[in-house]
Amino acid sequence: MGAVVQARTGRPFDLSKWAVLPALIGTAIFFVVPLGVMLLWSFWQRIAGKLDKTLSLANYERFFGRDYMVEGLTNSIEVALITTAVSIVIAYPLAYIIAYRIPERWQRFAVILAVLPFWTSYVIRSYSWLLILSERGIINGALIGLGIIDEPLEMGYNRGATVLGFVHFFAMLLTLTIYANLVQIKKSYRLAAADLGASPVQVFFRITLPLSLPGVAVGAFLTFVIAIGDYITPQILGGGQELLLPQAIMLQVSRAADFPMASAMSMTLMVVVTVTYLVFAKYLKMERV
Amino acid sequence: MTTPLVEIKAIRKEYGDVVAVAGVDLTIDAGAFVVLLGPSGSGKTTILSILGGFIEPTAGRVIIDGQDMTGRPPAQRPTATVFQDYALFPHMNVAANVGFGLAMHKVPRSERKGRVEEALELVGLAEFGRRAIHQLSGGQRQRVALARAIVVRPSVLLLDEPLGALDLALRRQMQEELVRIQKEVGTTFIHVTHDQEEAMSIADKVVVMNHGRIEDSGSPRKVYLRPSSLFAANFMGENNLIPGRVRSREGGRVRVETPFGDCLLDSDAAPDSEVSLMVRPEQIVAAPPGADDDSLDLGRAIVVGIVFQGTHLKVTARSVHDAVGDLKLTLPAGTRLAEGDDISAHVAAADIVVLTH
Amino acid sequence: MSTLRHLPAMAYLILAYVFIFLPVVVLVLFSFQDGLLPVPPFEGPSLKWYARLIDNSRLVEALGNSVLVALVSALTATILGFLAAYSLARREIFLAGAVRYLLMAPLTVSYLIIGMGLVITFSMIGIPKSLFAIGIGHVVINLPLCFAIVYSQFGEHQRNIERAAHDLGASDFQALVLITIPMLQPALLASFCLAATLSWDEYIIAFLLSRFDVTLPVIIFEMMSAGLNPVLNAAGTVVFAISIVFVLLAMVLATGRKRSHDDAIG
């Protein structure tokens, strides 16, 4: 069929074949090259305000040698893992209820409603949590007003607050991915299972849950990867109690202008992300309609 | 007289203003292969779903094996369903799918294995246990769905247009398989379809439905040759409808006036009522009636169309009687006939069915 | 009686929605605060903080910059993403799998790292920190999404319709402009609006790549380090409102256009 069409239109040069080039070139120049440059810079050092271009592993040695730096990495991984787990626990029931307990006409509305605050600015949203959690914020105000406590609780400015801020964002994302998956599972599978004697609990654990795992996996992957590389939320809500890797990297950039060191730390972060990707790879295929 | 296995009593299903099933009574004997036949919207699938427990009726009762099942969920009924899209669990292999119902009924693992193999052998998929669902063809998936439902030994097996997605040759083959399997396990099968040929191929009893009501029921032979209603007559196959009027009753029979003349037929139609006389195309003989035949002489007609259908010719002939229009005949494939030919036709009185309006 | 069975589910639903909307409600509520701090007790309502917002020329300028960068970078990302999706879906491309992987890769890299890479690279090749630089950064992060959204719509159904157009005599270009693009309108609009919203909100790349002309999130973050301030609430509310309008517009356009398009044809 294609050959016939070609003959009829008689195109001498297939422009559309090259249409992918702008995007490809753009990605190559502005994404791949910078990463390569960073990789290179990670082997250089900043000494006494100047760029020393001798190749060495000094930055990496410094990173893994300093406790507080490595802690930044482990803290980041911990926070990202906790965030992912808690977000899944909160989002799955929500997605399930919307997909299976809400009448179909209202489902779209329910999902949009659940995702609406997604569109507040990321920065603003973390700030809003500060309003709620701070010493003079809503929760303290309510607790003191009700006489439950006398002194305001320090709820903001710690890891818990960071996780809360993260979970608020990622629960919405996960609700979306899990819902999209749940709604795709054919109703006849669950009917068939019930017909063969499965109780509602058995239908969930044997049919619905296994078939919803791809949606969970995609959401979990995005959550972990985005959370671990995020600077804003821990910076606003973390209160400097512990340093997460992105914050440590920004310190190198803004205080010390030590781009080589920052590059080395960034490369380390990328390795973690790549490993995560490999773990999730089989769930992340691109599908066409 | 044994009690029937399934009794559907005054079942009614309404969706707001729409009446899907309008008061249906039906009994089904154990071991029968029953086919619910009708166009879409006739209510046949709704009845099947009500039997399976997936839909609750607005009114009426369902009794299976002497027990009132109305209101019981599917898991607690002695029914198993073969769904139209098979509904095979994509994340389990064939053996796990077939064994699922047994696992739900807490059949011990050792016994499960044997019964799964037995069921797979029954449907002709003996070595397929370890295959993944996506590796199977349409016909193979259909058999797995069947095996999965049969293995739990239900009292009634419900089949929801299971052969719809298969091509013609495969469908014919599966129809034979279904009959064979049903005879072998002896389970009562209730099968829904809109294909009257399929219904006649497999059913012990055909139930013709339309607009939520039963139009006719009986053996395939009875429903085809002696339909009870105009709808059933039309749905079961091509036919010729000759307009007539009942002149009088004579004994158990009626004298009917037609454009072709009078004839005496079996019917309990009232005098002076308008009726249609139904004749199947293959029942018209393309020759003038013999002197002793008890038949209706259809007179002369001119051939206006011949379609070769492989095993037979579909012939359309325009009757000289205007009131009758075109006659449809089915003649042997080798008949020497051409458009424009003049033919005479008649039909045996015993073949004519009187349908009241 | 069946409503009682649903009670736990409904309760969870309500609790979840409260959790999700709490920050937004607090934000918007206290932007109308009459007192000095955006915390209880609530005094007001008052529009004075919005007035302060408008007075703050830096903020207004930053808002304008954000809009500019968002629209231009979203447009670029959508066009590039469409072209890439078109050629990958409809033609035999050398190493198509690798190309797809490459185009999607930026999704998994932290914005911080992308931003840093660009800072270093731009300083080496002499592109100054500016709105232009920020725009490039935003195209990099949004291109994968635009590509993915449009690519997912190039299915078999789409292909058959294009074949029909060719069959009736349309050239490649005609089929593209008269059939493909109109049919993909919902996807194109969706990816444009998504890219615009993500760019509009984006902080870290904007921070790293800006010097004098800043975008709104950068200024907001700056103000935030000074403490809680109702002006921030007002700014945040405005940002939220604009984003919502954008999203709703996208949805209406995406579904509405499709209907009128079908009417025009049939």
Architecture overview:
With 289 residues, chain A is an all-alpha fold. Chain A has helices at residues 2-9, 21-42, 58-65, 67-100, 104-115, 122-133, 138-145, 159-182, 187-195, 200-228, 232-237, 245-254, 259-280; strands spanning 45-47, 50-52. Chain A has a single domain (66-283), classed as MetI-like (MetI-like fold). Chain A starts with a helix and ends in a 9-residue tail after the last helix. Residues 1-12 of chain A have low confidence and may be disordered. Chain B has helices at residues 44-52, 94-104, 109-122, 138-150, 168-185, 196-202, 220-225, 230-236; strands at 6-15, 18-28, 33-37, 59-64, 67-68, 79-82, 156-160, 188-193, 205-210, 213-218, 240-250, 253-258, 261-266, 274-279, 284-285, 295-308, 312-319, 326-332, 342-348, 353-356. Chain B has a six-stranded mixed beta sheet, with helices on both faces. A five-stranded antiparallel beta sheet of chain B has the order 13-12-11-14-20, with no helix packed on it. The mean pLDDT of chain B is 91. Chain C has a single domain (31-265), classed as MetI-like (MetI-like fold, Orthogonal Bundle). Chain C has helices at residues 2-5, 7-31, 48-55, 57-90, 96-104, 111-125, 131-151, 156-167, 172-183, 185-201, 204-208, 216-224, 230-265. The termini of chain C are far apart. Mean pLDDT of chain C is 83; it is low at 257-266. Chains A and C meet through helix 1, helix 2, helix 4, helix 6 and helix 7 of A and helix 2, helix 4, helix 5, helix 6 and helix 7 of C.
